[in-house]
Structures are given as structure tokens and as C-alpha cells.
Amino acid sequence: MNRRVAYIDFAKGLSMCIVMLFHIKGILNVQYGTIVENLLFSACMLPPFFCISGLFFKEHDSARVFFLKKVFRLLIPFMGFYLLTAVALPNFLHYYFGMDFGTVLGWPSLWAFIWPGEYPNIPLWFLWSLFLMNILFWIICRISTKWFPNHRIPAMIAMVAAFTLLGNIAGYALTQDIATLCKTLQNLPFFFVGYCIAKRRDVFILNTTFINKRLLYLIVTLPAVLFAAYLPSLLSHESVVADIMLFYIQGIIGIGFVLAFSAFFDHVRLISYLGRHNIVILLSHGLLVRLCAPIVVSLSQAIGAHAAIIALWLLLIAAYFLFIVVLRKILRLFTLFNPLIYRIFA
Predict the structure, then answer these.
(1) 306 vs 43, 170, 300, 319, CA distance in Å?
(2) What is the pLDDT of residues 209-231, one digit of tens each?
(3) How far apart are CA 124 and CA 122, in angstroms?
(4) Torsion of CA 175, 177, 182, 186, to 10 degrees
(5) Please, what's the b/e burial string for 311-326 (b: 16 or more CB within 10 A of its CB; e: otherwise)?
């Protein structure tokens, strides 16, 4: 396995482990302290995922080819697992076994990811958001190339900034994020950062000759990530602008730290394995966490909330080394629709 794939997979696996911990701790509404919350869950969880997606963005395909690729890789897995884990299975468990997830049931569960209501497998929003973001960013690339060929990058920066501003305004003004459009626009800069990194061949992230200095990059990013952890305590949080700035400062620092950390520890193949199959984990862990909620509650009464959360987290990580094999086969079932969809749009 080459160095680039190894540490990118490690970065995805590391971020996915943090995502699982975040959702597990949500069962008991436990906080892990200011530094941990700011460092792990604000800086190192979602921004690296969006950045890595931007790293591998391909803009040269035609509109039809690009759209079909994103439908096959993102939309079909999302819809398949949404119908299975957020509609069919929760309704079946509720009506036949009395299990209540505290979410939308019945026909409204079919469109709960758009409006309105909460569905049992919340992490699926990322795949849907990533589909929307790819389509939007392809449009941004085409407009900047066709209309501003001599000022392409400034035009892209201006459009990304405009959409990001729109997303933040809407996010604070609306009580409901319709179809996660606000989150998509708010996280667009992290995707753009990944795209820009991929265009710079002299940046260490895509240049294997620079990876030999990976310890240096890790050391350099440590003060920055500590700054990101303590930054919220330095701000009054009385200003919406300050909160927005904090969100992006922490995100950018988190991206740099996760990539540097992954470049140094990419020899830990177990985390890289999880990273290679991060989509499978993303699609399934939300429902697994909800199913395990009674176990966490009972266990917390015996060993404490924090210990119970860590115990389930480690158990799920270990279990996925078995689950991934089965879940990959389920995911392949949804690809059976690809030829039909290709004929419709071809």
C-alpha cells in the first residue's frame, strides 16, 4: 500500500472513530470536558471528512458522467440504507416489537431527512450532504472556468464565500435545516480546502517525498491544535460572528492536525482498515448506537456513564471488523440498480 493511501485511510478511520464516540456519548448526554469537546468533536470530526472528499474531487467529467458517478457512489447507498435503517427496520421493530426510537414513524419517515422530523439513522445526513456538495462544487468549477477563465481561483473563492455566508445566515435564521442544506453550505470551505490542497503538488499532503518529514509536521501542528482547544474559552460567545469564526478556525486546524497525525501513525493498519470502509460504518453505526442505547443506560448505572460510553465505543469498533464483511455485501445489493439508472440518464 502506498504512503498516500495509507495515511488518508488512517485519517478517515480516525475521524470515523471520533464520530462514533460522539454519537454514543449523545445517549447519556455526557460532556468530556472543554478541551476534549473542542479538540475532538469540533476540530477533528467532520472537517477532515469534508476536506478529504475535496482532495479527490474530479471536475473534468461532463455533467452527465459526473452526476451518474455521484448517484452511484453516494445517492444510491444513501437511499438504500435510509430506506432500510431509517424507514423499514424502525417501523417493523416499532409495530411488531414495540420498540420506540423517539423518531418519525409511518409514511412521514420516507421524507424525514428533508422535512420535518428526526429519523433513527441520523449519520446518513453526511452522505446526502456530500452528494449535494459535490453537485454544487461542480457547478462552481464550471462557472469559474467558463465565465472567469483568467481569474478562476478568485471567482471560486468568491462563490464559495457567498454560499458559505448564505448557509450561515440561513442556519441561524431558520429553526429547521431543510434537507441539511445549511450544513452543506456551512461546510463547503473545508471541501474547498481539500480541493486546493490537491491542486498544489508541492504540499506535503500529496507529495510522498515530503512525508519523510511527517514528525516535523506533527510537532508543528501541536501548538495549533492546543490553540483550537483553548480558543472557545478566550471568546465571549456573545457574537454570532465570533462563533462562526471559531467554527472555521477550529475546522482548519483540525484538518491540519488529523492529516499530520495520520501521516505519522499510518502504520496502525487496524485504523486504516476502518478508514477504507468508512462509508459502510457511516451508513450503519447510527442505528446500531440506538439499538445499544438500553445497554449503555444499564451499564452506566453499574460502572458510570463515562466508562459505559467508552466500553460500548471499543466494543463497536471491535465488532466492525466482523460487521464490515456482511455490510459490504448488503451495500453491493444496491449496486444492482446502477445499470437501470444509467439507462434512464444515458
Answers:
(1) 21, 35, 8, 20
(2) 444 566 666 666 777 777 766 66
(3) 5
(4) 80
(5) bbbeebbeebeebbee
